[in-house]
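During data preparation, a discrete fold description was generated, as reproduced here:
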Amino acid sequence: MTKEGSPSFVPIPELIATFDNDGTLWCEQPVPVQLYFALDRVKALAPQHPEWKTKEPFASLLKGDMKTALAGGDHALLEIVMATHAGMTTVEFEQIVKDWIATAKHPKTDKLFTEMTYEPMLELLAYLRASGFKNFIVSGGGIEFMRPWAERVYGIPPEQVIGSSIKTKFELRDGKPVLVRLPQLNFNDDKADKPVGINQHIGRRPIAAFGNSAGDQQMLEYTQGGSSTRFELLVLHDDATREYAYGPALGMPTPKLGAFTPALYEEAKKEGWTVVSMKDDWKQVFPSEPSPVTAIDILLEPDATMLQHSETNNARLLKVFPKGFALDATHRPHVTMIQRFIRTADLDKVYAAAGKVLAGANVNGLKLEGFKYYYIPSGKIGLAGIVAKPTLELLKLQQDLIAAVAPFTVATGPSAAFVTTPDDPVIDPFLIDYVSTFVPKSSGERFNPHVTTGVASREYLDTMLAEPFEPFTFSPAGAAVYQLGQFGTAAKKLKEWDLKP
């Protein structure tokens, strides 16, 4: 689809993927997240509305009785939203949402709601983005509720968020132009209106669409109705142990909101839509779960000579690309020997096997020559470093390490196999592929021993590579196993060895 010349090739501007949010990208049970936001807003505003103590649905909300509050259906929901989401400017509302989402937690897991995103879907978003797709959220949730945090959590900018909205009007307040949120529904982005919203906001029919409930059915139908290759997927929540199980498809319980009906299940089978079982198809549900796989780097730690050259180059790259990384405790300069995905339960066996190899090699006695810069391209940027010439001794050491850890390796791993941060929870798909194929693509005759020094634009790195490079000699000062982080950095030390004779 993304390969020019292929029969199914689609030009980049047409690579549009649409995702429902609640139940597709993050947990929506026992009720959607925005309802918890509304509940907290009702509590905060209650002193200004004494009548809410006896007026439904507010009286039930103040008692924490969601079931009774939602018994009024769409009318009750609309009344709650209008009372809690209107009466302020768009800027004020954005700040209210940002403050709330920063600390709000799921009532069952006590995790931040933003930690209740689905790891496989985060990786899918990253993969599609790296492949040239533009990802859109198309949700029944509030458009201005999602926009303040969607880019941080999903990598989806505000202009690519489509959702339900209330009316706004332009005003001058204290001489400043503002938009004021009114207690009137503007657009309900659900069910048959999802394709309407897609047409209004995007102007192109999606190539791929992802949902989880009957509210997404028409979006998937609209996507399938286009010419050329299309893809539709539904997430089936059938894992009561790790998340929730609800349908009522396949005889599972019927939820208050977000139903996956038997009729939707039958249509998916009839139309050839992919139905993903959370229980059977997802090895991991949430990013914060311990990963059964760990991405490791068995590496050599360089001496002071290489450290000085690396730090000098890193400082240079940070000046032109401040979003890069500094060489510090979480980004240690090193020469990678092998990168592999390892079963986490076998890490101690890996340490023992690798340690035996290192103990039998004269690692500190190796003399290596740094002789040029290089970089690995990734879109418009590149990951740069200093290359060392591979010696016969270094190549033998690598092959011995590969053989030693081979019994404990697996083919690939998720983002959770790496060290990540809440602000950057998804690993670049190119890095996952790089680790998966390190053997054989980066070993043996293809081994490119180097010390990674930073990130910059490819244009700048091309200029840097064209400059004269003065070779220097260095030696390993130690060896260790690290868990890999973003950009393939040595992010967390797991094991080190004393290599002194």
